[in-house]
Amino acid sequence: MITRLSRLPLGILYLLADFLYFLAYYVVRHRRSVIREQLALVFPQLREAERRAIHRRFLRNFCDVAVEILKGASMPAEEMRARVHLRNPQAAREYLDAGRSVLFVTSHLCNWEWLLQGVVLQIGHPVDAAYKPLHDAWAERLMLAIRSRFGAHLIPAKELLTEHLRRRGVVRVLAMNADQAPVSTERRHWTRFLGQETAFYLGAEQIARGTRLPVFYLAMRRVARGRYEVEFIPLWDGREILEPGVITDRYAGACEREVLANPSDWLWSYRRWRLQKSLYGAAGGA
């Protein structure tokens, strides 16, 4: 069923996305309270009508991304390359071509699944991508099949460092999506993000520091429906002396700038601020 739907023309799938948007906004009211609560938290200066416009645009984009991910299960490599344009990958390629692995950190902006597939097809080196295993075995198999179809090596996030050390001799990209709440660990870094005290995972920074990997934030931006561009933003060269937490702060800052510039492309339906910082400090944080 998934395969047959995936082979439909993208234009037809966008008609399905339009219908899904109608259901999500007007009928099901998909996570309406979460979305409105977080938009009010981040954009208190906007009028209610302005926040609702972001809400509607977000759901439209979210439904587009859903059918795009479906289409990604069968989309030819040439079409994927054309739809995900890498603006400036040269700096990252220079490290890789010189024999140094690099770390790419991403966020839930635009189509993060196409981002992985587009990078794998165009960066010119192997890509190890961290992922969170799913509880449902069928969904796990489907997700792994879609994400790895162009050659990405999927590794459970908790095993990424161990796997990297085991295969240190292989020059490659390590990729992590790092903007979710660190609910599974007590080791957190707290910083200001979108005007809120926000906890971030330390995993990306710890891997980068421990292995001296240069770090790039990949900023994905929507150019048109079904077309994106990706900017490679350097965060650390692997040698600069930094205080603990600075790499994570730089990541949060880069992500924040993208969200503020294109608010309807971020994942507002995910409850980002479920963790609250203690008045007495955050145990285990950097």
Descriptive keywords:
286 residues; alpha/beta; seven-stranded mixed beta sheet; 11 helices; globular; disordered C terminus
Question: Helices, strands, pairings?
Answer:
Blueprint: H1 2-6, H2 10-27, H3 32-42, H4 48-71, H5 77-83, E1 84-86, H6 90-97, E2 102-106, H7 112-122, E3 127-131, H8 137-148, E4 153-156, H9 160-166, E5 173-177, E6 188-193, E7 196-201, H10 203-211, E8 215-224, E9 227-236, H11 246-261
Parallel strand pairs: 1-9, 2-5, 2-8, 3-4, 3-5
Antiparallel strand pairs: 6-7, 8-9
Give a written overview of the molecule.
With about 290 residues, the chain is an alpha/beta fold. The protein has one domain (about 1-265). The protein is about 45% helix and about 20% strand. It contains eleven helices and nine strands. It has helices at about 1-5, 10-25, 30-40, 50-70, 75-85, 90-95, 110-120, 135-150, 160-165, 205-210, 245-260; strands at about 85, 100-105, 125-130, 155, 175, 190-195, 195-200, 215-225, 225-235. The chain has a seven-stranded mixed β-sheet, with helices on both faces. A two-stranded antiparallel ribbon has the order 6-7. A hairpin with a 2-residue loop joins strand 6 (about 190-195) and strand 7 (about 195-200). Residues about 280-285 have low confidence and may be disordered.
Q: Brief overview, please?
A:
This protein is α/β, with parallel strands linked by helices and 286 residues long.
